[in-house]
Amino acid sequence: MTDQRSQAEIVRNSLKRRYRKERRFRLYGLLAISIALASLFTLFADIINKGHTGFIKTTITLDVTLDSGMMYLDDPTDEDQRSMADFMAPIIASLQEHFPTADSASDRRALGSLLGTYAASEVRDLLIDNPDLLNTTQTIELPAHDRVSVYVKHADNPRYTIKLSEQQQRWVDELVEKGVIDTSFNDVLFSRGDSREPANAGVLGAIVGSLLTMLVTLIISFPVGIAAAVYLEEFAPQNKITDFIEVNINNLAAVPSIIFGLLGLAVFIGLFGMPRSVPVVGGLVLALMTLPTIIISSRAAIKSVPPSIREAAEGVGASKMQVVLHHVIPLAMPGMLTGSIIGMAQALGETAPLLLIGMVAFIVDIPDGFFSSATVLPVQIYLWASSSEQGFVELASAGIMVLLTFMMSMNALAIWLRKRLERRW
Amino acid sequence: MNTMNSGISAEAENQDEPRAASVAEHKPEDTVIEEGKTVGKPFSDDPKFKLRNVEVFYDQARAIKNISLDIGRNEVIAFIGPSGCGKSTFLRCLNRMNDSIDICRVKGSLALDDHDIYDPKRDVVELRARVGMVFQKPNPFPKSIYDNVAYGPRIHGLANRKSELDDIVENSLRKAGLWEEAKDRLDATATGMSGGQQQRLCIARAIAVSPEVILMDEPCSALDPIATARVEELIAEMSESYTIVIVTHSMQQAARVSHRTAYFHLGHLVEVNETNKVFTSPQHELTESYITGRFG
Amino acid sequence: MPDKKDDVYGDHISHKFNDELMALKSEFLEMGGLVESQVDRAINALVDNDGHLADEVRATDKKVDQMEIELDEEATLILARRQPTARDLRLVVAVIKMVSDLERVGDEAKKIAKFAIKLSEEGQAPRGYVEVRHIGNHVLGMLHDALDAFARLDSEQALRIMKEDKRVDEEYQAATRTLLTFMMEDTRNISRCMSVMWILRALERVGDHACNIAENVIFMVKGEDVRHTPVEEAEKVVGR
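Predict the joint structure of the above. Result:
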């Protein structure tokens, strides 16, 4: 009896120790998760902090009198005349109305430099589209210069250097007060391609480029990957060759992505003579890179189909083909799709191989096909981030946010698909 | 030497009880089995399956050792034996389910209605349509009840019209004793049913392609006693129109459902006889030791 | 109780099952021994004109009945719990049947004791006691041998008992003829001679029951039912 009691006591004492240990263990876990969450949060906060202004543009709205004499332009449809015309003059004149005292040549220049480089071409484009507007007064929204934009958005931020003169700053302050200079949602970001001018640069070109590239990647890697996985899992004989292929696929998944870029450069561009910096080549290279991931995850998905289902199908007389087509592939589909989407998300974020095949070029136009020059989101971000102009820094952050949104929605799609298609047995 | 001596002395002492002496002298596990020699009645007058000198190899290992057996028409024959005795392997030879195992080779002559099962020209799909199979774990497809039963007829093209297929499904479910429970939820997924219902669905699925033979590999080992009783009842009903081969670990089950019982031991077919005979007075010492719970 | 290791019922994986079968067997033998002594004492009571002993025999029969009930219950429990097969099943089934044989033998002993009391009250021993002694010894031997055959699972000895039964029948017939003659000689003896006839009849029944036990032993050992078959048939079965 006493023996039992003392034993119970020992157990009770050890229990305390055990509980302490468990609590400590749980604490470590919590700590690890909070560190991870904190760094993630910091990263997001930093990106959003830097990038949210990228979604805001600064505009100068002016009543411009499109005086033909001032512009040396009689007929806006005439190409020769247009090339000689001075579209800047009416804009500066309109600005001068706000500051009658500034009429020296240097003041005019200083006023003019408040506007973005593309202000003149905005006026020109307007006139080309509507020649009737000549000699009328129009209210036109014009992009402000990057320096003005930085001053308006970040006057108090020591990280940004204000490159406006004292006088220009006074002018801008006054114009802001009058409501001439205003900030609004940056629709340019989603409607334009790249540009030398931050105020005029957008990610649409890169998004389209990315989508085209991904489409090529998907069309090639998904069927090929699944076919390869099905063959290896279901039909391939168990021998040295199969083992060899298996080992190599696993190794391929670990090959640095830049090697695939080199391969693409050598094979697609060098050997097959495909054009540089086009989505087809980019897609092909990324497809090669994604294939191992898709094959490995698809094989895992096929392996997870219970053998009892195969046996059941074989038992009622289904042929090997029917077993695979009717049962194995449908049941493995959620896993295959998840693997593919995650592989695609990886490819979407890939820069290195694309740099090598020339998708890093400065491309203003929005790509209109698989064979037109294009760039992709991560490369665009890379380009902007390495640019010296202050306006591009916030654009790069904005681009990262766009890219992250894409990736998260792809991952969400993967999760949704898995939940949706998953069956229990 | 010692054991030999004691053996002789025991015999000398108990000359009029050789049986008692012999059993007490050595363990049943040590009994040497003469290869290919089966006690009892392995042959039948009207065989559905005629199996002669069957051997199965896994790589070099011989899993089935020279077995000859007839399986009669509309007979329920039970295969019993300790784990790893080869009864499942042997069962799977009957509809070539072993084909998918690369290292597995089958030797000997196996004939279904006098046609060689392992004829390379023979289509295994046709064979499996004639020899259906029910597995240990209920394994319905993760589809609707209807689709489960209709799958076989569909892939074999047994029904031309939807109404024909409906008839097949209904008939199969009726025969499997599942119609009353399932008729109102044919579109529900099969995996939502109870284990016993799932197993009867698997039987219905096997019946749907109207096979002549049904192989059952421990069909009740995952079921509760009530579900087991249902399946056993079903086997009794089906025995009128099908030849049934059942592998079971439950000797009581073999005793209840089968006409003949075959006892397998380490790849040998030790004894085949009428079930009544096997369970009251088996002829082979090993059979006796196994069914009375002395080893296994 | 027989040694576990040497007994064919002692090598199951379940030790509890071993113990149950072993207990069934040893209790059956115990009952057999009791019944044997009942018959022996009943005959002694008769021959020695010992009414006291006869009373004892009648009292002890209650114990025999009690043992029958206990053995039946044990056998039923084994059937329910273990679902025995083959040799084990045959043992249990045979014990159930042999127990009722033993109980009947017990009843016959009681009957003999009853007549022994009656005869001792009526005084003077009639003729026929020699025959009673002779047949009594014969069937007692048979009963003993049958129990021995059961204990050792000896089918050949059981076969010998089956053959023996014929001789008991012959002896019984001879004895009854003798008594019949005696009764015809002197009608006053009829009542007492009838008692002796009944006793002889009881002893003959004991022989039959011993024979039944022997048949069951053959069933246990060989798995063939040799009841209601000619002895030659049984001989073939045992010879296998």
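Chain B has two domains: 1-30, 35-291.
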